[in-house]
Structures are given as C-alpha cells and as structure tokens.
Amino acid sequence: MLKSISYKIARWRLKKNTQRNFLIYCSVAVGLIGGLAAVALKYLVHLMEELSRNISSHLPYHIIYVFLPAVGILLTVAWQHLINRDKIQKGIGNILINIKKNRSNIRSNNIYSHLITSSLTVGFGGSSGLEAPIVCTGSAIGSNVGKLFNLSPYEKTVLIAAGASAGIAAVFNSPIAGVLFALEILIGEITIPTFIPLLIASATGVVVAKVLYSRQLFHLVTDGWVMTALPFYVILGLLCGWIAVYITKVAGKLEKGIFTNQNRYVRAIGGGLILGFILMIFPALFGEGYHYLQEILNGNIDALKEESFFSQWLSNPWLMLLFIAALILMKIVAAGITIGSGGNGGTFAPTMFTGAFLGLFVAFAVNQTGLVHLNISNFIAVGMAGALSGVLHAPLTSIFLIAEITGGYILFIPLMIVSAISYIISRVFSKHNMYWHELIHEKNIHPGQDYGMLNQISLDSIINHDFKVISKEMPVSDFYTILSNSKANIFAVLSKHGQLEGVVWMDEIRKHLFEIVQQEDTVADIMVAPPAIIHYGEPISDVMDMFDGLDVWQLPVIKDDKFIGFVSKSALLNKYREVIISQHKQADIFAR
C-alpha cells in the first residue's frame, strides 16, 4: 500500500513540476510525526516517573529505588533481544554512521523502538536522558520518509536532520536550538537551502508539542546579569570545560558496557541494582533529574534533603556544598551505568543536569562567603549551556537552547562567555565531540564533508576491468609486443589462479626500453611489488588517502584474494567532481 501511495505521489510530483518544493512538504510531514513522537515519549516517561515517585513516597528512604532501575533496564534489554532482535541502533553515533556509510538509510524499527525502550529505562529511574532517543526516533522518521519517496542520499540526510531538529525542538519548545543542534552535530555545515527544511520541521514539531502536551521539562526564571558577577562566570566557564572532559571520558568508558563477561540479562540486573543503590543514596539522580532541578529553581534547595541518608547533616551549608559536588560527579557515573548495563538513553540530559548543579555549586559557594550575592537561577542556566558546549562541541546550540528556555536573551553575554571558554578547554583535550571521537578512532569515519561525498562513490564505478593478463614467466620481448598495442601505464602480473604477484610500471619500463633484451629476460626481472593494494569494499575516503599518502596515480584492487582491476586517481577525481556538482544541484532546492 505504501509503495502504491509513494508511486502516485512521485507521478504527481513530476506531472505538476513540484519537485523543487517536495523536500519542503516532506519536512512538514517529518516535523509533524517527530512532534507526535516527542509528545508520546514525554507523556509516557512522566507518567511512569510519577507512578514510581508515588510508590516510593510510601516507603522509607526510597527503598524501592534499589529495584526500579533494574526492572526498567531488564525490560529494555528483553525488548531489544526478544522482540526487536537486536536491530535497534542506539545513540547519535549510529545516526552519523548511517549518514556517512549507509547512504542515510536507517531501519524503520527505530521509529518506535526508542520510544518504548527509553521510556522503560528512564521511567523506572534510569539516570539518563530522553534527548538522544528522540533524536534517533526523529532521524529514523526522516530517513524512512525519504526512502518512501525514493529521494537521494543528500535529501534523506536533510530529512534525518529535520527529524532530529523537530524532536529536540518539541522536547524543549526550542525551535532555533533544534535546528542548530541538527546543523552542528549531524550535518556539520550551515547553508540556507539546508536551513529552511530544518526550520520548517522544527517549527512544526514545536506547534504539535504545544497543542498536545504543553508541559515543559522545567521552567527557568532568570534575571539580568550584573558586572560584579562577571569574574565568577569566567570561573564557571573554566569549571564547565574541565567537567566536560570528565563527562566525555567517564561516559565513554562506562557506556561501552559493564560486566562485559556476563550475558545481557545479568548485566541488566547487576547494573540496575548498582544504579539502584546509588539512587537510594542520591535520590536527585533518579531519571533525568529535572524534578529536583525545578525545585531548586523555585528556591527550594532543601528539596535535596528529601529522603536522603544525609538529611540531618545537610542543614550545614558547607556539607550541602559537598553534597552538591558529589551529585555533579555521580550523575554521569549513574548515566554511564544506565546505558552500559543495557538501558536506552543519552548523555544530553545528564550533561545539562551536571552543568546546572555546577552552576549551583559556584553560586551557592560564593554566596556563603558573603563577599557578593550571585543569582542562583542565572548560574544554573549558564552552567547548563557551558557543560553542553564542552561535551557536544556545539556552542550555538547550547547558547540558543538556554536562551529559548529562559524566554529571552538577558543572559546572552554570560552564556556566550561560559560556552566559549568551556568549548575552548574541551577542544584542547579532544579535537572532536564525544560522538565523533569514537567514530574517528574506532571506526575510521570522519566528520568532514569531503569524506561524506567521497564515500558516496561506489568503488565498482571507478575500477578499470580492462587489463591484459601477463605472467612473470613471460619473456620481456613478448611483453614489449603487448606494450606496443596498449595505452596502459601499469600492468598486473598474475599467477595461474588470478592472484596478484606484482606490477609493471611504464616508468620502470622506460629505463630498460633501449637496453638489449636478453633471451632469458622475463617479466619477473622488471616487475615490482605495488606500493599498496586496495581491498574490495574499502571506503573511498581511505582509497583517496592512499593515493595522497603514496603519491601514486594507479593501484590494484583485490577481491577474495584475486586481482579484479585497477583504480586510477584521475578516475576517482572525475567521479568526485560529478558528486560535488550533483550535490550542489540537490542542495539548491529552489533551483530545481
């Protein structure tokens, strides 16, 4: 049925000459569906979190928290294993892999799987965020809408970004931040033709969220900043940069898995119980943590004492300060355990939580000295932006997200200062954000647009299969006869079984061309080992790196240990030029 509908739409599109606007129509649809998904996720999680809190309120010291996370993570793992058959692709890193390596194709099951598994994880207390799952859901929606209408890889990439921006915008009611997130994290460049579909999808997602579920994650009420607070914003920026490095390293290690020698269900139960004990000691780490954050923003810092083992000591402001510092360090540990034991979530919300409590730590500490009074809400807001900027390497997203949440731009200068300082410090320790760092070092996938366009080229399209088979036993005189009737600059020397034994370069032949050929001279005397071999299926970006690094123009290709042809750098560059021209035409949606 879907194929029939897509075929009819394709015919209508061609007949009415509306292809220049079709991507806009698709972005509206993606924004609409993405907004609905965000609303469904927020509703499910808040429903389960309230249920969990109601149960825990009837028991001393949140004792139920010991078991709830294990239940949620266990159900998540069971869904992934038994129902989803391990086809879910968790994390923003997998979106980037699909964009770079899979022509922007994402499996359709990711449209609903993240909604179910993340709501189970976070709703039962898993200390992670919903932003990564909703980004994955929105991206899957965009990719599958593109596949439905047979759009090009570039157009599907735009729709993936549109779905992600709609999801972020709907969760935070922040349309500009949603667009900037998609541009800074997923696409990596800002162009007007790309910006417009994302803006439309983001706005559509926000409208849907406001109509169906207007409740915000939290409300930030801030005042204007004062010059006397400026040095402390600089200090906060420095601390945000260092805490961003801490988050990246700790989260990166824990998210790769805990109890790795055990089966998935043991990991889920073991990790869930460890997390449960952490939550019993630090109840503020339950779920996303926005509940306690909102209480502090309302001026009720004593909410941190609720059902805490340390409540009797937390009346001392300096012990409260130490407790806040412990929350800052433990939130990302709890998030890493949640994801590493099999739960589905992201580090976006834990990063915001950590940054918020870091801002609280600075303001609360300075206020205890009596030297100057700092606005705690302002520092909480700016701390969130600083931590996000350092972890995501996305300062624009961080600045505009907090500016939109606070409902104005009165904190714009502190947001800019803290985000910039945090970003610079984080870049000193890691050139790329936490998503790209793993992809570059473990999967050899790079963020540059050049790599993306290169990997759109099929190796088959540039292999020259027209070659003469020569053996190393062939007399040189016979080889010269072949050479006189050929325009090739390189020849492959093959065994009887088609395996490459060496190559003969035209440059090497010139050295012997005017020498007297001895009767016993064979090709074995003039052949050499190739400087490198291209293995069939190797990424084109790696092939280009070989050409540049070795300064050669032709290399042999091997498939299943047998020689199948040559690839020339000139053929690759010509194909690359075609891709650039094609992509520029696709990008200019108003020129088609």
From TrEMBL:
Major subcellular location class: membrane
Record's subcellular location: Membrane
Family annotation (InterPro entries): CBS_dom, CBS_dom_sf, Cl-channel_core, ClC, ClC-type_chloride_channel
Topology class, membrane: Multi-pass membrane protein
CBS domain residues: 527-586
Keyword Disulfide bond attached: no
UniProt keyword list: CBS domain, Chloride, Chloride channel, Ion channel, Ion transport, Membrane, Transmembrane, Transmembrane helix, Transport
Transmembrane segments: 21-41, 61-79, 157-183, 195-213, 225-245, 265-286, 318-341, 347-367, 379-403, 409-429
Keyword Acetylation: no
Protein name from the UniProt record: Chloride channel protein
Organism the protein comes from: Mucilaginibacter lutimaris
